[in-house]
Design goal:
CATH architecture of the largest domain: 2-Layer Sandwich
Strand order of the largest sheet: 5-4-3-8-7-6
Radius of gyration: 20 Å
CATH superfamily of the largest domain: GAF domain
Number of domains: 2
Strand content: 15-25%
Length: 264
């Protein structure tokens, strides 16, 4: 039941240098997947659909900046130390660390898959996941994977309360990506946001996978600032309307009990 999506880009207005940026990021993502063993130039170029000369030029620039390393003997590329230094300053990973006990407790009680979702530009990104003990695991995304904003229960609650102008921009930006998810349209997403506001929590039934349902609740700090969304996913037979509300109550009660202790 895994699904991933490319970050938003294809339908945006091209700007000077944007193509190089997208290619560079694509290469870094491909390299990250092969980082444990290292990757050869030909494999990386094939992974992202680039000519080997173009991939080589980009990788050389990344090596010069310390973002990527190249073993002169094996000719294998790996992520460089600069990536670690950049990552240290990414606040979402602090958020992931702080909220890990919350996800673990919810997974323990619900026995289902729990994910932590944040907004990343025009995408929603999974930054943590804890699997429950139920034997049929429902994994709708991977840690680090992105989907267009509007897709998925967590995505819904992250943008349901923002200004309408911002929602219109998001829908327009992602309109060509929505059909990848059960032929959804921008109007379908707009309606799900209306439903989410009425309920007070997000529900995704079959949009990512026809046999799976997910429920999501937004997390806000003591100042009322939106931090992230916690989502619980399960097979449809386990997550009917009655249990959806029970899961929402579980997330809310656990957050209320743990927020201050976790530093929020």
């Amino acid at each position: 039941m895994k699904t991933t999506s490319k970050p938003a880009a294809a339908n945006s207005t091209p700007v000077k240098g944007a193509q190089s940026v997208h290619r560079t990021i694509a290469l870094l993502r491909a390299l990250a997947k092969r980082n444990q063993t290292g990757a050869r130039l030909t494999a990386l170029a094939e992974d992202v659909g680039l000519h080997i000369t173009t991939a080589h030029r980009i990788l050389l620039s990344l090596v010069e900046e310390g973002i990527v390393t190249l073993d002169p003997v094996t000719k294998l590329y790996n992520l460089g130390f600069e990536v670690y230094l950049l990552g240290k300053n990414a606040q979402q990973f602090t958020l992931r660390y702080k909220l890990s006990p919350l996800l673990e407790e919810i997974a323990k009680v619900s026995e289902d898959t729990v994910t932590l979702m944040i907004r990343s530009g025009y995408d929603v990104q999974c930054i943590d996941m804890v699997q429950g003990s139920f034997p049929i695991r429902t994994t709708l995304t991977d840690v680090g994977s992105v989907m267009p904003l509007g897709i998925g229960a967590g995505s819904q609650v992250l943008i349901a309360s923002i200004d309408q102008d911002d929602i219109d921009k998001i829908l327009a930006y992602n309109v060509v990506r929505y059909p990848e998810y059960m032929n959804s349209t921008a109007e379908d997403i707009r309606q799900t946001l209306i439903d989410t506001r009425k309920r007070g929590y997000g529900v995704c039934d079959g949009m990512i996978h026809p046999g799976a349902v997910s429920v999501s609740v937004p997390l806000s700090d003591a100042k009322g600032e939106l931090l992230a969304a916690v989502t619980v996913a399960a097979i449809r037979s386990r997550l009917g309307q009655k249990r959806q509300k029970e899961i929402v109550d579980l997330i809310n009660s656990q957050w209320k009990a743990m927020a201050k202790k976790l530093g929020f």
